[in-house]
Each structure stands twice: as C-alpha cells, then as structure tokens.
Amino acid sequence: MILLDTNALLFVMLNQDKLTPGALKAITDADELLVSSISIWEIAVKNKKGKLSLPFTPEELIYHLKNVTNLILQPVDERVWLKNVSLDWDNKDPADRTVVATAVLRGIPIVSSDKAIRDYYSRTIW
C-alpha cells in the first residue's frame, strides 16, 4: 500500500508523463493505493479559487475514485488530526501535514513531488 499525495493523484489522473519513472513504478506495483480525503478538499479549494483547472467536477472526481478497484479513499479521523498537530515539522500546509500524518500512522510510503514532504518524510517516493 502507498499513499498518493494530491499532486501525485492529479498526475495519475491528468498527465502521467509528469510522474517520475520511480513514482510510476511504485503506483503500478502497489496492491492498494490510498488517497486521503483531504486531497479532495485541496483539489476542490484550488479549483474554486481558479488555481487549478479540471476537466471534471470535484463530485465527478469522487465518483471516479470510489470506482477504482485498488484505491481506498481514506477519511481524516481524529487520530490523523492529532498526529497532524503533533508532527515536529514547521510546514503549515494543512493538506501536507494531513497526508504525512496519515502515512506515519499507517507506516506506508507517500508518492509526492512536494519537496517539503520529501525532505521531512524519508519514505517518500519520487
């Protein structure tokens, strides 16, 4: 199982050429893909603010993700929020912190192009 950061999720869905060979291999080889529900929030917020143009609505994205066989859309629960707050990390981005907290709690790698995540979380694949 691996966790897809928001950017990796978007690359998988919109432009797989933006994935590194290592990231693509990790995604292809994974028995299960995990996506934090905060990624849905992040995508919807950026889309609403005009910072991200999508060929689908956030609702269509959720419908699609729920129909991918090996993908789990993980709700953010109280354990994740508490881990998010307890991370010894200066990053103030709530989505980044939540993605990392989810990976830490599950003990799994994250696929992410985000340098801040890669610098903090040693099990990041890119």
Kindly summarize this structure in a few lines.
The chain is an alpha/beta fold and 126 residues long. It is 53% helix and 12% strand.
In CATH, what is the homologous superfamily? 5'-nuclease
User: Topology as H/E string?
Assistant: EHHEHHEHHEHE
**CATH architecture group name:** 3-Layer(aba) Sandwich
Helicity range of the residues? 40-55%
The low-confidence parts are none
Work out the number of β strands: 5
User: Which strand order spans the largest sheet, edge to edge or round the barrel?
Assistant: 3-2-1-4-5
Radius of gyration: 14 Å
Structural domains: how many: 1
CATH class, named Alpha Beta
Describe the model.
The chain is globular. Helix 5 (78-86) crosses helix 6 (94-106). The longest helix is centred in the C-terminal third of the chain and has 13 residues, at 94-106. It is 53% helix and 12% strand. Helix 7 links the parallel strand 4 and strand 5. The protein is α/β, with parallel strands linked by helices and 126 residues long. It has a five-stranded parallel β-sheet with strand order 3-2-1-4-5. The mean pLDDT is 96. It contains seven helices and five strands. The protein has one domain: Rossmann fold (3-Layer(aba) Sandwich), CATH 3.40.50.
